[in-house]
Protein: Formate dehydrogenase
Amino acid sequence: MLLTFAAASLVPASAQQVNPTAKSVTEQQFLDALKGNPSAELQGRITIPDQKAATLERPAGREWRAFHQGTMLRIAAIAVLGTLLALVAFYLIRGRIEIAAGPAGRTITRFNGFERFMHWLTAACFLVLALSGLNVTFGKLVLLPLIGPQAFTNISVVAKWAHNFLAWPFMLGVALMFVVWIKDNIPSTVDLRWFAAGGGIVGKGHPPSKRFNGGQKIVFWSVVLGGAALSVSGFYLLFPFYAGGVLNLQFWNVVHGIVSVLMVAMILGHIYIGTIGMEGAFDAMGSGEVDLNWAKAHHSLWAEEEIQKGEVNGGPRLQPAE
Structure:
């Protein structure tokens, strides 16, 4: 390929008045001529059919690089590290949320086998996608100095392939969750009362809620909408020739990066509540069975419906309260 700098031409009309053969013309003059037009390009003449290869300079590319290497790092650090610090502080202040009445010794089926499968499919894929994605953002700053160039290269290659291939089952899991759980995640006035009462996180009481409370509905819609944004942007990053040009590709790269770190921050809070943050919460996605007193405390409206249907395990059928 031959790039003839002496015959370079500018896309904007004002730039075409610049004589590229003059010795006084500098790179800065070319860039000044492109200012005010984010899609402008400095092009030369080439001897191959692919005219995209004639692009010599695109100022928008510098802006994207500055964002990717600067602003994106700050957003990721604030979202991820800030959330971790906030969760540690919250645990030290609030402590673990216990079952106030103690375990009842009887259980209700909260999630069936298929629901747990699609949850763990999505969760496992997201975990690998998050770690491999964070490696792109923080790997050179954090991991490379610790393990050295060769090990970092090997890990990054494996992470890249894992990221590319596990994106597909992640998208499948998000789609399944939307179809299966959409009926239980429609916002209602019950959610407003749940938020007004602090959701049982602030204070000691647990406001009534149905199968999914207001906080869980936020997680659901964040995963569905955020997962959709990651899927669309990730598709264009995997298949850049469909993106419609470099500028569009840079846009989807920014969308992918910002949405992903915000989802990582949210999922950290979700993991906290589902493990050390709340007694009995992990059982919902572990065995699928939750303690009756836990259900009454955190999802009283749903628990009442299950009791009326006789869906209580470990003893005689319970009758609903008069």
About this structure: The two ends are 85 Å apart (CA to CA). The longest strand covers residues 4-10.
